[in-house]
Write a structure and sequence with these properties.
The protein has 325 residues and is of the alpha+beta class. 34% of the residues lie in helices and 22% in strands. The N and C termini lie far apart (45 Å).
């Protein structure tokens, strides 16, 4: 088999410093078979220069989220390795789950963290998209900052109709993929690959089995139906627990903080005589988002991040290192 790291472009074409850090958060349409997920994780870990920071699964959604970090070349190799495991193991013709999905590897976003620009992540997304389409015969749609088509920037617009409606959708004007064949892969569907700013995947579980209430709350808070500007939301039933869930992506936690979302969901739920059972964060979250929640709920005055012990120790350690150079 061809080396997945072969013929990678020079790292300078993507990064602006020798220590560029890009985050990648591939979503895979499998959340139940532990052996499949362990094989994907092992394939990622085997790629030098990439760190697998986190991965989590949801059986009801039948979906898993992996969080990787590294420079462009190693990340590309890791994503190719992920596809090799996922495409051979996942068949969407028999896949069932609550979460909408278009592909076995459903979405692959690249996020600039340090030493790289958004343009660099766009270049990387396009390069990876071309490679995936050529190697696996999977149609690839670009999204968010990587897409030049206004109708194909939002993930939900591309994924509408899901795998089952994909073949017909791709025959309609405007839905030729950016890369790859003009028809879905028989078992792996299509993939959506792009570049975006950091977001928080955040779910709130309600103490009810009425999914209609979760759907009404989602409609009230999501931007597309008149809610909060930086919130995408949908209502689901978690069949294994018989509880309803409001599942969200918070695309700008600074302008729409997580505590505000929680409070509005809480108040909307109360209108229907329902309370919040719990909430959960999928994957990783910037520390500033949690600090903001602590400031709000504890009503902290004049609180600074340097009052957090770990932050203070890290700052002092970095200052000491600079003095020694």
């Amino acid at each position: 088999m061809e080396n997945p790291a072969a013929s990678l472009p020079p790292r300078q074409s993507f990064s602006e410093t020798p220590m560029a850090i890009i985050e990648c958060i591939p979503n895979v349409s499998e959340g139940r078979r532990v052996e499949v997920l362990d094989a994907i994780a092992a394939a990622i870990r085997a790629v030098p220069g990439v760190r697998l920071l986190d991965y989590s699964s949801d059986a009801s959604h039948n979906r898993s989220v992996f969080t990787l970090a590294g420079d462009a070349g190693p990340l590309k190799a890791a994503i190719v390795a992920l596809y090799e495991r996922a495409v051979s193991a996942i068949d969407l013709r028999t896949h069932k789950g609550e979460h909408p999905r278009l592909g076995a590897v459903d979405v692959v976003p690249f996020v600039p963290i340090e030493g790289v620009t958004m343009d660099g992540c766009v270049t990387l997304a396009k390069d990876v998209g071309q490679e995936i389409a050529a190697r696996f015969g999977i149609p690839v749609f670009l999204y968010e900052e990587a897409s030049a088509n206004p109708a194909r920037k939002n993930l939900e617009d591309i994924r509408r109709g899901e795998f089952e409606g994909l073949a017909a959708k791709m025959q309609t004007p405007g839905w030729t993929p950016d890369y790859g064949p003009p028809a879905p892969h028989p078992s792996a569907g299509a993939s959506v690959i792009g570049a975006r700013m950091p977001l928080i995947a955040y779910n709130i579980n309600l103490n009810t089995d009425r999914v209609d209430i979760a759907k009404r709350i989602a409609a009230a808070i999501r931007h597309s139906s008149g809610g909060l500007r930086y919130v995408k939301a949908a209502g689901f039933m978690l069949e294994d627990r018989r509880i309803a869930q409001v599942s969200m992506n918070l695309t700008n936690y600074q302008k729409t903080p997580i505590f505000r979302v929680f409070e509005i969901v809480k108040r909307e739920a109360a209108r229907y005589g329902v309370s919040i059972l719990e909430s959960e964060i999928i994957g990783l979250i910037p520390s500033a988002a949690l600090v903001g929640a602590a400031e709000f709920y504890l009503q902290l005055e004049r609180f600074g991040e340097q009052q957090i012990l770990e932050n203070k120790l890290r700052t002092d350690e970095e200052a000491g290192s600079r003095r020694l150079e």
